[in-house]
UniProtKB/TrEMBL annotation:
Its main location: membrane. Keywords: Membrane, Transmembrane, Transmembrane helix. It is a multi-pass membrane protein. The keyword Transmembrane applies. It comes from the Eukaryota. InterPro entries: Pecanex. It comes from Nothobranchius pienaari. This is Pecanex-like protein. It is found in: Membrane.
Amino acid sequence: MGPDVPLLNEYKQEFFWKRFPQTVLGGARFKLGYCAPPYVYVNQAVLFLTPWLFGGIGTLLCQLQLLQELHAAVLSGMLMFTAAAGVQALAFYAARKSGTVERLGAPNILVDEEEVEFTNCVSPETLRFIAPGKRFGLNVVLHTIISGLLCGFGTWYVFLGRLTSLYGSIGVSLVVFVLSWVTLCIAEYSLIVNTATETATFQAQDTYEITPLTRPLYIFIFIAVDLADRFSNPVPELQLACQTLHVLFLFLPLLWALGALPPLDALLFWGMEQVLVFGMGGSPMSSNVRLLLMFAVSTGITVCNYFIPSALGVVLFSVTTGFLLSLDLSQVGSLSKSPREAFR
């Protein structure tokens, strides 16, 4: 390739500048390849800023000392839970109203979006374009509950009083507060309204809708560290970690967009394999099914060892199960067949 050859041709550049902002913003489609009415963008903007509105209500009531921090966070979470349930109800209504039959499976993320004919701001076509909805009823309930928890804990995570106690400056606290809510809005939008096309992908098709849980998972990890600092004895290292993570929290959208953080399914399988190998002395597995099976069996054996009262019993049980797990049990079937074939 010569120096004058572009990395992306005109078509790919257009596709990139349509798709990349969607990934950054958690699935909000503010740049389309065709003309759309203004209410399409307004509706998406309102849904995008809804968590910030509810979190702002809780923060304001807390700052005015009308509610305690915990009660304000619970209020914000309940409001977000109600809004998420409303969005899912509208998506279900639009799916029933349109009466279209879709093939089960993830859509092709490498093709352009089909042009949609919008009639009004609450038409089934508009609702399905903005909030496609979930494929499974269990995910509707689960994602709605998680959205409420995320908004509640997120409001608690970025309270101005908490940020001021960490950094000792009102100006820095306000900057962190505003940018943190941008991160929370991105995660909420991807969870409830429309899932973003992630740069980091572990499986070709998201059959069980695991991708929407990826961004909230990382936010809950940040919140867990903050809660540990709140409810434990003062530890300078933990407080320093909270200060650092609050700043890193602002760059989560960039890390998600660049694919620097692994998706949820890959992270869980990797974590289970690390625990199995380094924590329980097992071996790496060749497939996800074997990994899940071996991790479950090893965890069960570890729990059983904890409840055995006799030290001798623990030793005998560990030796026996360790020997059985060290065998390649997949070869038992072939070994049992070979003697029969020898007598034929």
